[in-house]
Amino acid sequence: MAAGERSWCLCKLLRFFYSLFFPGLIVCGTLCVCLVIVLWGIRLLLQRKKKLVSTSKNGKNQMVIAFFHPYCNAGGGGERVLWCALRALQKK
């Protein structure tokens, strides 16, 4: 008798989880769509902010160049290469 009751309980439990499957998918999909909309809004906000900051006083867009040179201070001459690249860019 106990085994029959356990299987009935397991069957009820499986039906309960199956009944939550589709509503769970709907909630998960809705949350994903909301997340995409929020991230898209943040991206647009940051792009507008960047555009406002990058405009100089005379109305022209400034060009910003950044260098990432890992281990330039390791003593292998990388720092000199970096400064030569910056000097060439300034001359250009």
TrEMBL record:
All residue ranges annotated as the ALG11 mannosyltransferase N-terminal domain in the record: 63-91
> Could you state a single Gene Ontology molecular function term?
GDP-Man:Man(3)GlcNAc(2)-PP-Dol alpha-1,2-mannosyltransferase activity
Give the main localization category. endoplasmic reticulum
Which cellular component terms (GO) are annotated to the entry?
Answer: endoplasmic reticulum membrane
Which UniProt keywords are given for this protein, alphabetically ordered?
Endoplasmic reticulum, Membrane, Transferase, Transmembrane, Transmembrane helix
Q: Which InterPro entries match?
A: ALG11 (IPR038013), ALG11_N (IPR031814)
Q: Where in the cell is it found?
A: Endoplasmic reticulum membrane
What Pfam families does the entry give? Answer: ALG11_N
Q: Where are the transmembrane segments?
A: 20-42
Q: Which family does it belong to?
A: Belongs to the glycosyltransferase group 1 family. Glycosyltransferase 4 subfamily.
Q: What is this protein called?
A: ALG11 alpha-1,2-mannosyltransferase
